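Field reference: sequence -> structure
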Amino acid sequence: MENFLRKAREKIQRKLEETKTGSKYFAQTRRGEIAELRSDLNGVDDYRKKAAVKRIIANMTLGRDVSYLFVDVVKLGPSTDLELKKLVYLYVLSTARLQPEKALLAVNTFLQDTTNSSPVVRALAVRTMMCIRVASVLEYTLEPLRRAVADPDPYVRKTAAMGLGKLFHHDMNLFYQQDFKKDLVELLNDNNPMVAANAAAVLCEVNDYGSEKIESNSEWVNRLVYHLPECNEWGQHFILEVLAAQRPSDKESAETLLTRVLPRMSHQNPAVVMGAIKVVANLASRCSQELIERCTIRVNTALLTLAKRDAETQYVVCKNIHALLVIFPNLLRTNLDAFYVRYSDPPFVKLEKLRLLLKLATPTTAPDILKEFAEYASGVDMVFVVEVVRAIASLAIKVESMAADCANLLMQLVDRRPELLPHVVTAAKDIVRRYPELLMLDALVADYGADEVAEEEAKVSLLWMLGEYCDFVDNGKDIIQRFIDSVMEHEQRVQLSILSAVVKMFLRDPEAMEPQLNRVLETVTTQSDDADVRDRAFAYWRLLSKGMTVEQMKRVVHGQTVPVNVDRTFSDAMTMADLKKSLNTAAVVFARPYQSFLPPYGLADAELDAEDSDEEDAAALPSTPPADPSSSAAEAAPAAAPVVKDMFEFAGDGSGARHPVGASSSGAVHADPLGDLFSVPPPAAATASPSHSQPALPSAPLPPPRAARAVDDLFGSGAAGGGVTAPAASSTPAVPQPSTRATQLDDLFS
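Structure field:
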C-alpha cells in the first residue's frame, strides 16, 4: 500500500511539473551538465530522457552548441513515445541545417518510421525528411515519398502532397526526372478534400515557376470543383487559384465552372471571396454576356461587403478594385458612397479611397465627388489635404465639364487656407497644361505674391507657367527678374526651371529679354557648381550661338507637350493576362508585375551560395598595382572626344564644313562660350541656307573667361589660355531635330 501511494505521489508530482511552463529548461548552464544530459539520454527513465531532450533544445535555441550529443539523441528516434519522437526530429532537423554531414546518421531512423504502423509517425517521418535541405539526404527521400503518395491513410497523403512541393523547391530537375508530376496528378484526383487542396497548392507553385507545366484535364478539375465546399478556407483559396488558371475549351464548360464558383463570394474569409472574383475575371471572356452581367452584380455586392471590413482588408480590396476596373469598367459606378472617406479611417485607407473615387469619377458622378473633396479639404491632416488638392486638379483634367468648378474650388481653398498656396500652384499647373484658358496664375500672384510660393515643386510649377504664359500675367517679367537676381540661392530644379523660363520668354520677345538671358547664362555658367545646371546653360548658349531662327529654336525648346493622363496606373505596363493573374496577390498591392517579386523558383539559395563564392574568390585574388594615371587619361581621351563632339556640335548651315578657329562671322549671332572648349566657331552667314526667312537671333557678348577646371582637361582644352586642338571633323554634324516626344525640359513639369 505504501509503495502504491509513493508511486501515486510521484506520478502526480510529475504531472504537475509537466503542466508548468518550460522556462526552467532555459536556465544557466551548470558545471557537469553535459555529462548529466548524456547520462539521462542513455538511461532507462523515459521522463528523464524527455526532460534531457527538452533541455538540449532549449540550449540550442539560445545558440549554444549541442551537436556533440547528436548520436545520443538520435538513439532515441525509435522510441514509441510520440512526444519524444517529435523532440528528437526537431533536434535533428535543426542540427542538420548547421552540420549537414551528421544528417546521414538519422536516415535509418526516418526510413524505419516511414513504414511504421501509425499514420501519424509515417507522416512525421516524411515531413521531417523533406524538411532536411541536404543534398546527401535527398536521394533517400524519393522512395518513401512515393510510397506516401499511395498510402491508404489520407493524413499521410496530405503530408506527401506538401512533400512534393518541398522536393520541387529543393531540386526542380529531380522532380521532373523522377516523374513526380504523375504522382501530383494522382493526388489532385484524391477523394479526400484536404489531400486535393494540398495538391492544388503545389500545382500552383509548379505551374507558376516550373519549366514544365502540368496540363489540366476535366477529370481532376471537376474533382477540385466537387471538393471546393468541403475544404477549409485555405484549401478553398488554393483550389480557386487553380481554377482561375483554367481555360475551358467550350463556352458551356466555362459557364458551368463559373456557376459552381459564385457561391464562394458569400464566404467569411476575404481571401476566398477575392479568389472567387479572380475566377470570374479570368473566365468572363469565355461566357455569355447575360451571365457576365449576373456575375458583375455578385462581384459588386461582394466588394461592397468587403469594403465594410477592417481597415487592412479595405486597403487590399481598394487596391484590387483598381485592377478590376480595367476588366469590368462599369463596376461600382453607382456605389460611390461605400468609398467615401470616414473620419475614423486610418491615413492609408483615406488615401486609397481618395484615389478610388477619382478612378470612379464620371461626368454624372463628378459633382458629388467634388462636393466630397471640398469637405475633405477642411480636414486637419495636412498630408491628406494636400492629396485632396491634387485630386481636385486630377478631377478637372479627367472630367472637362467640371474643370471650371474645380478651378474655382482651388481658389476658394486658398482664400480659406493660405498655407495651401504652394500646393494649389502645383495643381494649377496641371490644369493649365490641359486647359490653358483656365490660367489662375494672375489671380494667385496678385492676391498673395510670388514670394509666398516657397516650396521647390511649387516654384518649378510657377516658373513653368510664367515661361509659357508670361504675357497674360501683369507683373510676370518682374517675378522672373526676382528669380534671376537670386538664381544661385535656389535648388537645382528651380535653377533649371529659371533657365527654361527665361529662354522661352526670350524667344517671344528677343530684344526685351536679351539682357536678362545674358545675365542668367553668365551667372550659371561661371558660378554654378552643379554639372546639370551648367550643362543646360551651355546647351542653350550653344543653340543660340548657331544663328538659328526663332521658329527653329522654339521647336527645340518647346518640343511637344505630353498630354496629362490621370488614369494611368501600373496596369498600363501589363498585359490583360498578367493583370488578371495579379489579382488577389501582392503584385496588386505593391503595383508591380508579379514576375518582379521572386527570382527563378528554387534558385534563391543557389544565388546566395554563388554570391558567397564570388566574395571568397574576390578575397583570394592578388591585389593588382594601380595603373599609371597619365597613361589611363591618355588612352581614355580619344574615346571620350567624339562623344562630347556629337552632343554639342550643332552646325547652322548643315554642310558639315569646319571653320578655322577664330574665323569671323558676318551674321549677328551669339558668341559661343564653348568655342574655346571644342574649337568649333559659329558658321558664316554666307553659308546659311537662303530658304531661312526668319531673322537670326540677336547677338550676346561672350561671358568673362573663367578659371581652368578639371572638366576642361577631359576634353583636351588644356590649362593654358591659348588655342586648343580641334577634334576630328565629323562628316554629319548633329543638328537638333524636333522630337515627337516630350523634351527633357517638359519632363520636369510632368
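Note: DSSP finds 37 helices and no strands in the chain.
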